[in-house]
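Weekly puzzle thread! Below is a chain. First person to post its structure in token form gets bragging rights.
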Amino acid sequence: MKHLFRPLDRYVFSEFWKIFIVTALGFPFLLVVTDLAENIDKYLNRHVSTSDIALSYLYWIPDSMFMVLPAAVLFATVFSIGGFTRHAEVTAAKASGISFYRLIMPIMLGAVLACGLDLCLSEVVPITNRKRSELLKEDKAKVGTSRYNFTIAGEYGRVYMAYELRTDSGTIRNLVIQRKGAGASYPTYLLSADTARYRDRRWTLHTGRMDVVSDTGTVFSMTYVTGHDRHFTEEPGEMMSKSPDPANMRYAEITRYINAIERSGGDANLSRVERALKLAVPVTCIIIALFGAPLATSTQRGGSAYGIAVSLATTMIFLLMIQLTRAIGGKGVIPPDLAAWVPGAIFGVIGLVLLARVRT
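Winning reply:
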């Protein structure tokens, strides 16, 4: 174990980690200041208290950190190795028989830890974003009284499709409820109703039809005048909410959401891209370290200015590529599950080429 964590390893790791922490916290701070300056009037007009505004930005930190952690890894890699190069510490290590690959192992360990942290953030962000939305009263600001031609996913594998919903009268027109089954004891069914009315905390369905489909393909159908579905418990206000943002859903939640959309015949490409990004962005922390390590050996030519320019340019290119592949994958031009990995794959290939050319 002592050969794995020598004094040089601890020194390299500590230099990397100090820069990483400053960058990982610095970027979100700048985003908070910018967003606050742009939106403070809007929040105050909603009568949000200053304490709630301050707390909402605390909840926003995980979201703002998620996308910038790969950039923080890049900055930490470039500036730590650039410093070692300028002060001839890389040359001294090579003269002592330590290869460049062995020298950057603590940095790669730091990148792996950053990847794990980003994976945790991807699961925390949906929770903190919901808290922030409640504090800033964003949901109340968007709610109206009518909604048309929508599909939402419910519990127990159920999907609701409706032509019109009115919360002021508590009515739905042209409602279809689909439940995906799992065997003869839990069959698939389609339940339709011309109208549905919400009274006494439950929905009453009027003039409809129920079709039950078994695994053998046989269909049992029946019509009804009025009826109740005991699992139809969503209140009108809950159904007014827009379809959830896939970026603000946890991995398991977005998977269930994708399954519900596809069962109802909807397009889930964008949701699939967002789900893949929850893994692709954290893994990019490791890829970007491979890319930045050999690139940083050239920062001695331009010093800190060169390092800042390289890091900022790479970060901007990476974020632009994420947006581009998100749009392309969302349109189905390339497989959506693959689209999220394209930027990381490109940087990974370039990084491996640069790493192979480094004098060890």
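Puzzle host: Confirmed. Bonus trivia for everyone else. The two ends are 24 Å apart (CA to CA).
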